[in-house]
Design goal:
This protein is 50% helix and 12% strand. The protein has twelve helices and eight strands. It has helices at 2-22, 28-45, 53-64, 80-91, 111-117, 131-146, 171-181, 206-210, 220-225, 247-257, 267-287, 293-302, and strands at residues 48-51, 70-74, 98-102, 120-123, 151-152, 189-197, 236-241, 245-246. Helix 7 (171-181) crosses helix 11 (267-287).
Length: 303
């Protein structure tokens, strides 16, 4: 018994460290301040941000009548992506989502607290070899979804350095669909979002990374040095909310196509539908990408 008590306390201590590293600490006051800072930043470096208000109105109606979490799935070209969606939703008086972020910014003092206070929670790139971390992260995301909080995650997993849509990553998606099939959540509504830049903020480093250089690590000093961006003109951003995918309808349609599917009882069928959903989310993003001037110029240069 003494050994069991000791092990239990050690596991509990480790679990506490993990959840404190993962979790958001949403604070409305700090989130508003951060939104104002980001708004001024965007105004300084971009000529305009164009939002598809017609589709956003449709998303607003879904948000007002939702039976579960609203799940925003943006394209991922820049670190600005998750900040941009939050700021736009904030200024349109909609719920700002909790954002699944990589640990890139977690160890940057000041910045990490601002992000946490604005709804960011953090995820390792891999859970391999750490079942405790995996279990806690899965339960944390499930609890957010059960509380019907809006969430945001990147179906591509990481930033695309080529401006092409990448293959979907299924880990985060499977946590959500598993909770649905276990009847912990009544509904899942996915909202693909395309974010189209004339120029991305990190565009200068992508060619080096594509030719084999190591990814540039984020740090407080790097962010401070980035003050020079305020003298730059990065063109325009077009943000489009795409046709939402209501998972109960999507699931029914998949079963109608193949009546042998039984995802409620069969893990393989559940996986098949989840994988199909990931691909369809990516196809939705592909269909709604805008052709920006830089894309046209790059295509002409390649001819």
């Amino acid at each position: 018994m003494p050994n069991e008590d000791k092990i239990y306390k050690e596991v509990q201590k480790e679990a506490t460290k993990i959840i404190e590293r993962i979790m958001a600490t949403y604070n409305h006051g700090l989130a508003r301040v951060f939104a104002e800072i980001m708004k001024k930043t965007f105004i300084s470096i971009y000529e305009k941000i164009v939002v598809n208000e017609k589709m956003l109105a449709q998303v607003r109606k879904l948000a007002e009548n939702k039976k579960g979490p609203l799940l925003f799935c943006p394209t991922h070209r820049s670190y600005i992506d998750f900040l941009l969606v939050s700021v736009v939703l904030h200024y349109y008086n909609m719920e700002v989502p909790h954002i699944c972020s990589g640990e890139d910014f977690l160890n940057i003092i000041i910045v990490n607290n601002l992000l946490r206070s604005s709804g960011a929670f953090f995820m390792r790139r891999t859970f391999k070899g750490d079942d405790l971390y995996k279990a806690i992260f899965n339960e944390y995301v499930t609890r957010l979804a059960m509380d019907s909080l809006s969430l945001e995650f990147f179906i591509e997993g990481t930033r695309s350095r080529t401006n092409k849509i990448m293959q979907p990553k299924y880990g985060f998606l499977s946590i959500l669909t598993k909770a649905y099939y276990k009847k912990k959540i009544g509904e899942l509504t996915f909202v693909p979002v395309t974010i189209n830049y004339t120029r991305t903020l990190e565009g200068e480093t992508f060619p080096m990374e594509l030719t084999g250089s190591e990814k540039v690590k984020e740090s407080l000093s790097r962010i401070v040095k980035a003050v020079e961006i305020f003298s730059m003109n990065l063109g325009s951003i077009y943000l489009d909310f795409c046709e939402p995918i209501v998972f109960s309808e999507y699931n029914a349609a998949q079963i109608a196509k193949n009546p042998k599917l039984n995802p409620n009882a069969n893990d393989k069928d559940r996986l098949a539908i989840t994988n199909s959903l990931g691909l369809d989310l990516v196809y939705s993003l592909l269909r709604n990408i805008r052709m920006m001037p830089t894309n046209l110029v790059a295509s002409m240069v390649l001819l």
